[in-house]
Specification:
- The chain contains four helices and five strands, in the order H-H-H-H-E-E-E-E-E.
- By secondary structure, the chain is α+β, with helices and mostly antiparallel strands.
- It has a domain at 123-198: Nucleic acid-binding proteins (OB fold (Dihydrolipoamide Acetyltransferase, E2P), Beta Barrel).
- Strand 4 and strand 5 form a beta hairpin.
- It is elongated.
- The termini are far apart.
- The relative contact order is 0.08.
C-alpha cells in the first residue's frame, strides 16, 4: 500500500472514532456518508453471479406472474381443446372463402390464348427448351423455373422435363417452344406443342 492510502485510512478511522463519542451512534450525515460505501460494495458482489441465457429464461419463467390456476379435469381440458379447434376451423373457413372470392375476381383463363380455352378451367401453358426430338411426333422439353423462397427470399432454381406431342415434327433440339396441357396422349405425354417461339442455333 502507498502512503496516500495509509493516510486516507487513518483519517476515516479518526472521523468514525470522533463521531461515536460525541453522538453515540453517529449523526444522520455520518449514516449518509456510510451509504455510498455500502452501495459501492453491492455492485462488487453482483458480477459474481453470471447467468447463462438459458438460466435467465428459466428464472424469468419460474417467477409466478399471477394467481395459481385451479386444477382442471381431463374433461375440462378436452372441452377447451375442442373449443380452440372450432375457432381455428372457423377462421380457416373464413380465410379460404376470402381466397376463393379473390380468385373469382381474376379472369379464369389468364395467360391462356382464347383459342385454347376449353371447359371451366384453363389448361396450363409452359415455355421451355427442346432437349430431344428423337421420338416420332414426340419432343422432350426442359422447363427451367426460378422462384423466390417464401420464407428466406433466396432464388431457388428448379428444372423439370416433360414430354409433348409434336404432330408435324416441327420442333428440333435446342428450340424454345411453348406447350399446353392436354389429355393423356400416351403413357408419358400429357402436353401438346403450341408453337416454336425461337429456333435453336
Amino acid at each position: 500500500m502507498t502512503e496516500g492510502q495509509d493516510l486516507t485510512e487513518e483519517t476515516t478511522e479518526d472521523e468514525t472514532a470522533g463521531a461515536t463519542p460525541q453522538g453515540g451512534t453517529g449523526s444522520p450525515e455520518d449514516e449518509g456518508s456510510d451509504a455510498p460505501a455500502a452501495t459501492a460494495e453491492a455492485p462488487a458482489a453482483e458480477p459474481e453471479e453470471q447467468l447463462s441465457p438459458q438460466e435467465r429464461r428459466g428464472r424469468k419463467r419460474s417467477v409466478n406472474s399471477g394467481e395459481a390456476q385451479p386444477a382442471k379435469t381431463i374433461e375440462e381440458r378436452n372441452a377447451e381443446r375442442l373449443e380452440r379447434r372450432r375457432q381455428n376451423a372457423a377462421s380457416r373457413r373464413r380465410w379460404r372463402a376470402s381466397r376463393r372470392e379473390k380468385r373469382k375476381t381474376t379472369s379464369p383463363g389468364e395467360g391462356t390464348p382464347p383459342a385454347e380455352r376449353t371447359g371451366t378451367g384453363s389448361p396450363r401453358i409452359r415455355q421451355g427448351v427442346v432437349i430431344s426430338d428423337k421420338g416420332d411426333k414426340t419432343i422432350s422439353v426442359r422447363i427451367d423455373m426460378a422462384r423466390q423462397h417464401r420464407t428466406y427470399g433466396k432464388i431457388v432454381r428448379t428444372t423439370s422435363t416433360l414430354h409433348a406431342h409434336d404432330e408435324r415434327n416441327e420442333a428440333n433440339a435446342g428450340d424454345t417452344v411453348r406447350v399446353i396441357e392436354s389429355r393423356p396422349l400416351s403413357r408419358t405425354k400429357r402436353w401438346r406443342l403450341v408453337e416454336v417461339v425461337e429456333r435453336g442455333r
